[in-house]
Amino acid sequence: MKQSHFKQLVSFAVLGTALFVPIALNAQQPTGNSFVDKIQQGASVTAEPSGINHVAPLEDMIGNAIKVVLGLVGILLLVYIIYSGFLYMTAGGDEEKIKRANKIIRNCVIGLLILASAYALTTYILKQLVIVGG
User: Fold this and answer.
1) What is the mean pLDDT of the chain?
2) In a domain, 100, yes or no
3) Is 23 inside a domain boundary?
4) What total number of domains does the chain contain?
5) Is the pLDDT of residue 120 over 80?
6) Which of 27-31, 82-86, 108-112, 128-132 has the lowest mean pLDDT?
7) The domain containing residue 89 runs over which residues?
8) Which residues have CB under 8 Å from 53's CB, separation 6+?
């Protein structure tokens, strides 16, 4: 298996684990009528044993989940930038390694710009939903 395929596989495994483990650990099925009621009831059942009485609105829960995912992607970008810096520093004048490191850095910067705009767009849309929803 190529090294780049292995890195992609590890990245998807980490992201997939972070996204699907909380779903797999849901211990009790809520009994409300609508989807929002089910989510809020499940959150209440989970919060009671810990002494938390406040259940966040659905917009806040979705916003927090999106921020966590964007944060994980940001961490992954940081790891790739460090890796490409390591490649660049250890290239020893090899043009192939320098080009590869520069390509990775360029792609990371583009990814960082996309990530920042996604974060800004998500924040704006969620604030507008809160304003419209009351």
Assistant:
1) 76
2) yes
3) no
4) 1
5) yes
6) 27-31
7) 57-133
8) 47
Report the predicted TM-score, pTM, of the whole model to 2 decimal places: 0.53
Q: Is the CB of residue 87 less than 8 Å from the CB of residue 101?
A: yes
Rounded to the nearest 10 degrees, what angle do helices 58-89 and 35-47 cross at?
80
Amino acid sitting at position 83: Y
Phi first, then psi, for residue 52 (nearest 5°) are: -90, 125
Does a structural domain hold residue 108? yes
Instruction: For residue 115, give both structure tokens.
Output: 């990530």
Contacts from 8-17 at CB under 8 Å and sequence distance 24+? Answer: 11/76, 14/72, 14/76, 15/69, 15/72, 15/73, 15/76
Question: Tell me, what amino acid is at 62?
Answer: I
Residue 97, in any domain of the structure: yes
How far apart CA 3 and CA 111 sit, in angstroms, is 20
